[in-house]
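Annotated sample (chain length 171).
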Amino acid sequence: MVIITFLLYLAFYRVREVIIVLATLPMSIAGSSWLLWYLDFDLSVAVAVGLIALAKVAVEIGVIMLVYLNQYRDDYLESAILHGSVTEEGLRQAVNQGALQRLRPIVMTMAANTAGLLPIMYGHGTGSEVMQRIAAPMIGGMISTFVLTLLVLSAVYLVWQKWLLRGEIQT
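Output written by the structure step:
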């Protein structure tokens, strides 16, 4: 976890953005916990390996989403400053556009990962019980990461940007 945080800081150079990206981890762990509970899997080394792999995917999706949200925010602020008014509605539209731009790639990533893990979940044979415990947290976590990253990360980002630009926003 420390290594992920350090690498994120090297990528963004802002603690606030690192915190926003790391906020995807509890969202992903929530989904994996529900699926592990539903399947009655106990915490084990195999489950921990699945959670580590899930953390990588969740952080990757959070980073990509944040990069696009920053890009659309910057584009909006440039045009708004040229026209002399930064509005809350314009900022909201910029964040929505950034999130919508990432919708299809995130759906494709989640669908491909989940489709690749489903045969492992329902496989039988030597070693399948261990592999199921690796795949289960990843499948549950990816589903919750998909939904919550699109909704929660975008909303947190919008609130954060409104707070940062509170003196410049015209209502």
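Annotation: Strands lie at 86-87, 169-170.
Annotation: The chain is about 85% helix and 0% strand.
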